[in-house]
Amino acid sequence: MLLQVPNVLTPEEADRFALRLREARWVDGKVTAGPQSALAKNNSQLPEDHPLSRELGDRVLAALEQNLLFMGAALPYRVFPPLFNRYEGGQAFGTHVDNAIRQVNGTPHRVRTDLSATLFISGPEEYDGGELIIEDTYGVQNVKLPKGDLILYPSTSLHRVQPVTRGARVCSFFWIQSMIRDDGRRSILFDLDLAIQRLSADAPEHPSTVQLTGVYHNLLRQWAEL
User: Fold this and answer.
1) Which of 99, 84, 112, 94 is nearest to 159 (CA)?
2) Average pLDDT of the chain?
3) Residue 88, CA atoms < 13 Å, CB-side half-sphere
């Protein structure tokens, strides 16, 4: 499943994030790359333990908890604390696959990366290049979203970031361990959830709404890993 989640942040909120991040102390992005990814990665990153990273990351998590589309699609069990990166002056990230397991810095906790997410803080008019290229079962997807929008995609996907040739591309990125490990099953549940919501809106008294809701929860109960 590859899904655009609009308005995780409002444009105004994204601008406030950008203003705070503009004066931050950035470091080489290779600090969170695995051995293979480090060969392809060329960007800047806000340190994981930077107070601003934690503050803004908590605000991203709070926004996600209120976003029904994200919650229904990801069915999150654990979310890796959001990180922040910046590409400018020709920086890029070559083709790679995200690490399967991420250690949460300074804790004993690990997150299995079922889903990857990129939240765009810079708008597409602010930079040239910087497209997120994702190779999935439906071909190659070219992603460059409005500020405040998020792209959600399987962490098993090959992906890359094209060189930024003008301006700066600033994003938040993180990973999700879903209650449903299998992407196909997660997609079935998401489609069923959307169908139930449409039926509830069009025919709120229809008895099939309760029946389908039961099917949804029985599948979730059977497939969930907690």
Assistant:
1) 94
2) 95
3) 14
